[in-house]
């Protein structure tokens, strides 16, 4: 994307954490930035226009995209960041709870993407950046449903990129590792917890909190998004942070048995 052209970015889940820091980084990079949140928020002092959007609602998604287009006439960049977590044994969640997580993390991305594609096609240019995770690359005990949504985003994004590339549109993945945000404070808990998982679930929650405390700053992820947004010939995937790069290397090049053993050791699961 040319630095001389006016560029418009729409960032979902921009009320805090990675979304807010990413929106600010794009604003500094010269984008006119619109961020979304589920509840009303004032525009930020540094020029980010905040709009209400519920990514689980078709009408809400279309309304926010129409609003941005009515103000600017274009959307050059969509950053699909909105998402929720769920920690617990896979068996501990009802189908309804699993559907709710997928509705935000997967179908929310699909709704936003489908809403912006017609405008990007008319422009004959556009970029969509989907926030995945290193948990989209590896198994994640006690994060099975969350990891499943990220595995889905990986396959969806890479496939869609092939479909729209000839229309001047690229779809790119950014894969953060543990990031210092309030993510763990907003985790969904299982709606049908079982005693058999209680002890290890508690450990998994403590472990997640410790890992996040030692994780990358959200600015690391935001920098990866800006690189992905501005690259003339973008890569399909951008890892964000040293730990994410190590996990990606491990998954791609090391034997599956080695990965399995170390994952179980990390999760305090017996061989």
From TrEMBL:
GO MF: oxidoreductase activity
Segment forming the signal sequence: none
Pfam families linked: adh_short
SUPFAM superfamilies referenced in this protein's UniProt entry, alphabetically: NAD(P)-binding Rossmann-fold domains
Keywords assigned: Oxidoreductase
Ketoreductase domain boundaries: 7-177
The UniProt record lists the keyword Oxidoreductase: yes
Gene3D superfamilies attached to this UniProt entry: NAD(P)-binding Rossmann-like Domain
Stated family: Belongs to the short-chain dehydrogenases/reductases (SDR) family.
Protein name in UniProt: Short-chain dehydrogenase/reductase
Species assigned in the record: Phyllobacterium sophorae
